[in-house]
Amino acid sequence: YTSAVSITDTTVSSVNTYPDVYTPSPNIAATTVTPRNSTAEIGTQCFTPNWFPTDPPTQDDIKGVWGYISSESNHEFYAVGENGLVIHFDGTSWTQTGNLTSYTLNGIWGSSETEIFTVGEHGTIFHYDGEYGWSDMEPGFTTNLKNVWGSSSTDVYAVGEGGFIAYYNGTTWTEVTHSLTTDTLTGIWGSSSTDY
Question: Residue 5 half-sphere exposure, CB side, CA atoms within 13 Å?
């Protein structure tokens, strides 16, 4: 079973449990793309991208992917996975940027190309600033983390095993105390800073 926790104004307000309906193969890598014959609008530009295969430069399992498209010619994607894997896609090819840790990285999210967070096993959290590279945030807890999402670089949540939720305010990571579930939380998403 998968638990869904609702967070409003940094307070956990409700939890629902649903049966698992989809478990991805650990050996399948995916990137966010738009199907052929559909139109993506970016600012005032419109273009029709196509599906295309990619060949990541790794044999490690990929666990999470995040990216952005700022123009038809500017596609930036990052994928994370086993053994601290981080790889980068520039719209043409993948390159391996390095292994940040020996722990598996499970999720990645960013508010921009210079504010990217990745989370993983043993409470691992890294931050990318676009200038100095990836840095270990050393959050002070060791719970296995599964995913991360935020409304901005100063309003970020990470979730993980045992119903664990952590919050980042732009300065410090802190655990969100609640008693709603002990199920592993594998994903998080929201539409605003008050609707998670």
Answer: 26
Q: Which amino acid is at 125?
A: I
User: Which pLDDT score is estimated for 15?
Assistant: 43
Q: CA Rg, the chain, in Å?
A: 17
Token duo for residue 138: 């050393």
Alpha helix positions (H), the chain: none
pTM for the whole structure? 0.74
Report the chain's terminal Cα–Cα distance, integer Å.
20
Q: How far apart are CA 88 and CA 94, in angstroms?
A: 5
Q: 3-state class of 193 per DSSP?
A: coil
Q: How large is the average pLDDT for residues 74-81?
A: 90
Q: Are 158 and 125 in contact (CB under 8 A)?
A: yes
Q: What's the length of the chain?
A: 196
pLDDT at 193: 83
- For residue 150 the two structure tokens come to 């935020």
Q: Is residue 45 predicted with pLDDT exceeding 70?
A: no
CB 126, CB 115: distance < 8 Å: no
Neighbours of 157 (CB within 10 A): 24
